[in-house]
Amino acid sequence: MEADRTPKLVGTVWGLLVLNTLGSTGAETVVPLPRSLIQMVTMGALVAAFSLALALNLRLRVRASAFLFLLTLLLVPGVIASADLQSGFGALFRCARLALFVGTLWLLSRWWDGGATFVRHHIRMYFLVLCTVAAGALVSPGAAMPDLYGGRLVGALWPLTPPQIGQYAAVIIGLAVLLVLGGRTDRRSAALVIVPSLVLLMLTHTRTATLGLLVGLTLAIGSLTLTSAAARRFFSWAVLCAAVAAVVFASALQDWFLRGQSEENFSNLTGRAKVWDALLAAPRTIGEKVFGMGLGDKSFDGLPIDNSWLAVYHEQGLIGVGLVAAVFVALGGVALLRPPSLARACAIFLIGYCALASYTEAGLGDASPYLLHLAVAASLLAQPAAAAPLPVPDPPRRRVPRWARTSEVT
User: Fold this and answer.
1) Of the candidates 296, 318, 323, the residue with the CA atom closest to the CA atom of residue 75
2) pTM, to two decimals
3) Cα gap 277→360, rounded to integer Å
4) Is the pLDDT of residue 309 over 60?
5) Cβ proximity of 354 and 374 under 8 Å
6) In Å, how far are 99, 106, 116, 268 from 347, measured between CA atoms?
7) Is-contact 38 159, C-beta < 8 A?
8) To 10 degrees, the CA torsion angle through 344, 168, 318, 43?
9) What share of the chain in percent tops pLDDT 70?
10) How do beta strands 303-304 and 299-300 pair?
């Protein structure tokens, strides 16, 4: 395949995919937004993203990708389980949404070349989302930090929950740090992203995002320490600062981490464990165990599941769980086989973050920011397309006089 220069409109497509995955539920906004209107905007964004990606790739040139192939297979158990309409027409609608989402990623795979193009699009788009969160906090601090969420930061202009904001902030902080270490951006530009995002992350009090950021960066920077002096220096200073902070601010860090919860509430993960036990104990037929119950809203008996693996098991069965596990095995295996590089480090960060967050957050079996994070990782691990060989001009022909072109025997 010939190397293609990435069109600028690809960034627009990526932004529309980000908009589609923001969701339609969350805190009350300053200006009340009907859920039907939000759903119309998000679904319209997905249709626009697919249409624009198709216009940019009319020849349907795609790259071979185990990640996208597995996501395509993930549609199968969802469609089979949703076909009997046990979960209502909403399940088929969600299957169509996932198909359109995966189809858009297939069309964009033409420009996956192992470069940082999609990393930059990812940072820009989620930073814009965080700007709306910051603007909402300035316009209405009371609505941005309501008592309903324990004073944690939420989206006051667009309905975003604290875990969502924490996830977006943690991901772009980690990617920005790695771009600085790799020399792909200057420190001033990175600081404009990292500092405000870090403040928003702290205001959300999101433990999963914070741990995901720390673990993901540890894995990513550790993969660079053998080849990058900057990574070694950063890792040493980070360990030293973390040790000092753990000693000096131990009490404050513990209070922030517990969020005022009792030890019992903390031990069962804010009630999540009770939902998980009930989901696993619920009776299921063999078909429901294998194919699931059909795509839904990631809840069980009206309560959020908040675990990607159990949500996939509930909606797409054991086949879905196996396919999601295969996604991590494929991406992780390719990352381990690649030589140390910035692209590999960014991919390891995203894979590590999504793997850790999957324990307390749902989304790996449906169109979600987590699939976008893993798509960026897949684009970073793709081999650059081979450039077409330059045409070799024919050697100049020697001009032969007409009298010498034929010979006569005398």
Assistant:
1) 323
2) 0.89
3) 14
4) yes
5) yes
6) 24, 19, 10, 31
7) yes
8) -120
9) 87
10) antiparallel
